[in-house]
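[stage:ingest] chain + small molecule (FE2/S2 (inorganic) cluster)
[stage:ingest] validated
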Amino acid sequence: RTLVVVRAEAQAINTEIRKNEEKVVDSVAVAELSKPLTAYCRCWRSGTFPLCDGSHAKHNRATGYNVGPLLLKKQKE
Ligand code: FES
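[stage:predict] done
[stage:export] tokens:
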């Protein structure tokens, strides 16, 4: 048997999208949401995936990456 261990920290998540920004966060306004704000993880490090738990901040500090969540915001009427 061969055990292959892949260190996730060694792999870049965002190699080309908006690299000049400190953190890449996008938001979408949605009319029908039960909560005012929901953040979805795009770094794959969240302990509550698919929701963002803020783990991207530690990952970004350790790697120099700038990945951030996708925010769904309840559209104001
Ligand atoms: Fe992954 Fe926030 S924990 S984007």
